[in-house]
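User: Could you go from structure to sequence for me? I need the amino acid at each position, not a summary. Structure tokens:
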């Protein structure tokens, strides 16, 4: 008696998007072909287009999802953390981890930083709303520290923007720093606290 093999599960939309981001991270948006993306995902080009209308559509959806995941991760990790200094450490630690914790995180961060401007104005504006929400969270923590008397900056918005920018651009330089992820995290937590103290 023969047993039919279990049906092979086809990669879903999330797996296809992950493969596409990997290819964009390696080859750049212009160099990344939908054929290469489909091959990396193990699907046909037609299957890729079934889920995504275009390469630009994949980029938009990736950025949209990436910001949602990051915002939710920060909010989750802040639950129950008392004191602005500790909360700022959590925010910075989460941002550094998000960008650097593995090869895919690093590739996807490169895509987010390098390819964001390719979006059309409406999509770019929608992503900018989420980027602003991230800066709002950091500014809120800095403002808490001002109220507690542990921070002293008179530029809380710009401090928040600088912290987000610093952690985002780490993906391009972290190998030059030549330190462990924990050491880089501690270093950038210290930088962020210094900025907030004014």
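Assistant: Here is the amino acid at each position, in order:
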């Amino acid at each position: 008696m023969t047993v039919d093999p279990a049906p092979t599960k086809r990669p879903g939309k999330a797996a296809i998007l992950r493969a596409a981001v990997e290819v964009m991270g390696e080859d750049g948006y212009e160099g990344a072909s939908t054929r290469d993306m489909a091959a990396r995902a193990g699907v046909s080009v037609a299957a890729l287009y079934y889920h995504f209308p275009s390469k630009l559509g994949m980029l938009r959806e990736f950025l949209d999802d990436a910001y949602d995941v990051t915002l939710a991760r920060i909010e989750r990790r802040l639950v129950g953390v008392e004191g602005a200094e500790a909360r700022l450490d959590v925010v910075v630690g989460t941002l550094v981890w998000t960008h650097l914790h593995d090869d895919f995180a690093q590739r996807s961060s490169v895509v987010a930083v390098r390819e964001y401007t390719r979006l059309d104005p409406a999509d770019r504006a929608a992503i900018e709303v989420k980027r602003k929400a991230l800066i709002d969270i950091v500014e809120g923590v800095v403002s808490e520290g001002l109220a507690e008397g542990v921070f002293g900056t008179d530029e809380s918005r710009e401090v928040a923007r600088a912290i987000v920018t610093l952690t985002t651009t780490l993906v391009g330089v972290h190998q030059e720093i030549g330190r462990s992820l924990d050491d880089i995290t501690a270093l950038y937590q210290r930088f962020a606290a210094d900025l907030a103290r004014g």
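One structural detail worth keeping in mind: The longest helix spans residues 121-148.
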